[in-house]
Amino acid sequence: MQIGLDFNLVEDLVAGVDEVGRGPLCGAVVTAAVILDPNRPIVGLNDSKKLTEARREKLYDEICEKALSWCIARAEVEEIDELNILHATMLAMQRAVEGLSITPKLAMIDGNRCPKLAMPAEAVVKGDSKVPAIAAASILAKVSRDREMAAFELQYPGYGIGGHKGYPTPVHLEALERLGPTPIHRRSFGPVRRAYEALEGLAKV
């Protein structure tokens, strides 16, 4: 993909990086890295949370088509429980940047922390509302994770995962207490840990 790019453009390449799924009780944390093509602008990029689902889906396809390079990566539930959610997120961001087919000169990271990368990185608070490449990454990550949650809704019915996307809503917490945790729940998160402890208590009775 890098063959044929203008040299000056390569020198200026910036990757936007964002994550989705730090707060949910279940599922992977999903990240994306995107290098946009200045010659193929994408209209309407914004923080994925500020866009409708239909708009996100449309932009997802456009980003995949027009970006110079993009990569979606993740850290699994087991990694979240082993490393903690912050370190698992940093790992997933590393994977997203390393998965790009073009090496950027700078990575701009949404938030106030940067993962360890082979190139300079800059943290941008609320970057998904300020930096188009970060906004594009947020869209790829959110659409990808939302699709996974829709699939888990079918695999684990009764939890409402397709609606709340794994976040600790009253519906989710009630289902967790009533049905118990699933293999995709994060054992290190308080409500899930307490659900396992309740099951262990019942087993001892």
UniProtKB/TrEMBL annotation:
Keywords: Cytoplasm, Endonuclease, Hydrolase, Manganese, Metal-binding, Nuclease. It catalyses: Endonucleolytic cleavage to 5'-phosphomonoester. A divalent metal cation binds at residues 18-19, 110. Its main location: cytoplasm. InterPro entries: RNase_HII, RNase_HII/HIII, RNase_HII/HIII_dom, RNaseH-like_sf, RNaseH_sf. The keyword Nuclease applies. It is an enzyme of class 3 (hydrolase). Belongs to the RNase HII family. This is Ribonuclease HII. It comes from Pseudomonas kulmbachensis.
